[in-house]
Amino acid sequence: MSNFVAGKNMTEDTVALEERVLEINRNAKVVKGGRTFSFSALVVVGDKHGHVGYGFGKAKEVAEAIKKAIQKAKKSLVTIDLKGNTIAHEVIGTNDGGKVLLKPAGPGTGLIAGAAVRAVVELGGIKDILTKSMGSNNKVNVVKATFDALDRLMNSDEIKELRGV
Fold first, then answer.
1. What is the pLDDT of residues 141-156, one digit of tens each?
2. Integer CA distances (angstroms), 46 to 54, 72, 118, 122, in order
3. Which domains does the chain carry?
4. What pTM was estimated for this model as a whole?
5. Tens-place pLDDT, residues 63-72
């Protein structure tokens, strides 16, 4: 059980969040007595009903790094504007070298996505979507680009307001 804290259009609800560890990296530092290892973890959390977040944690132990990443992910939850089981319109998100294209898909299409994008959209509750990851293969950049794309999504009311209808 978790409280939603921050994000776009968030309401305070208590919901069980699902966690997915996307990547664990090991870093070695050579010191006088040998090597010192530290670990970093990339985690995505979501409730499969339009709320998703990601976190990046670093620590001397894998379990501690994952724990820190989960805490950060819960603090960074955002709301996705869903249109049925898909998104409202095509959108491109970028971060550093990562670039992600998200396209709405018809019912029954399923998730057409790579591992990093799939984790984000699946835990966000999107069931039908077409995606393409362009540029970087770095999972951190791809996840950040996916969140940038989700942040750029607009619902029909926001589009009408922009057009002055």
1. 999 999 999 999 988 7
2. 9, 13, 12, 8
3. 2-78 (3.30.160.20), 80-163 (3.30.230.10)
4. 0.86
5. 999 999 999 9
